[in-house]
Amino acid sequence: MMALLHSEWERLWKRKIAWLFLIAIPCIIVATAKYYLGHNVGIPPGSPEITTAENFPVMAMIEQLIIVFNVVALILLTLSFTEEYRSGQLRMIMLRAYSSSQLFWAKWIAFALMMALFFIIYLLAAVLAGYLLFKSAPQQILFYYDHAVPNGDMILYTLRYYGMAYASIVGMASVFIGIGVISRSSTAAIGLGMGFLLCSLGFPLVFEMSNRVLGLNLPGMLKYLSLSEIQFSGIAVMMSNADALKGVHAGIWMICVIAGYTAVFMTASRLIFTKSDRWI
């Protein structure tokens, strides 16, 4: 199994998109920093939107998580699952002494490890850029916090934020794998994946408008059935210490949503991927 995992790891690194994203990380960080430097000019002091050396890694992740990381995950998984199957490459691997289930998990673990590496490199680059390009502050004003936090606590907050951002990518990737194993072509897989992402982005707006206009009085936390909404604002809500949010148990709800997506789509994807007639 370790040999198969090593093989899948190498196959992922043979993809140009993996190297392009790795090389592009410094450029993405610099472009994001340039945006926030301009954004700081019009933001009043004491606002959580002010970007400092200490909170830039979190702000940089907020800006790029939904589009950049989701799209990279979609493309990598499409190339790993859909393209390799449709091109016949997986049949060559299946001639070895490995089951389709082992192949499925090796591909998933290799992808998860690669995304974890991207997150670590992105975090390190963001920390470096933050201290080079932004002013330091003795305390940090965070979204959905009732008080400022010291820089020591900001370190823990940043690590937790990146951990939850990674978990959200795992949930989103589970959906992309499900799409990938049923798609007839890479184009279809990417198109359906982007369609799901757009629907996920649009769901909170539709939900809130329907709830208000139709007077449904549904709990506002239901908008976080959208994985992209969890990525956009949910992680900050989840880690909030504001008294107004303590009673809604946002963290438990969103962790359950991510776990639900992951469990359902990974189980279905594995069953489809390992069907015996798939390899005939």
Question: How do you describe this structure in short?
Answer:
Helices cover 73% and strands 1% of the residues. The protein has 280 residues and is mainly α.
Properties at a glance:
single chain, two-stranded antiparallel ribbon, 2 strands, globular, membrane, transmembrane helix, transmembrane, ABC transporter permease subunit
Could you explain the architecture of this structure?
By secondary structure, this protein is mainly α. The protein has one domain (2-279). It has a two-stranded antiparallel ribbon. 73% of the residues lie in helices and 1% in strands. It has nine helices and two strands. Strand 1 (139-140) and strand 2 (149-150) form a beta hairpin. Pfam families: ABC2_membrane_4. The chain crosses the membrane at residues 17-37, 57-82, 103-134, 161-182, 189-207, 250-273.
Give the topology.
Blueprint (H helix, E strand, L loop, with lengths): L1 H12 L2 H26 L14 H31 L2 H6 L5 H34 L5 E2 L8 E2 H32 L3 H28 L13 H12 L11 H24 L7
Antiparallel strand pairs: 1-2
Helix pairs in contact: 1-5, 2-3, 2-5, 3-5, 3-6, 3-7, 6-7, 6-8, 6-9, 8-9
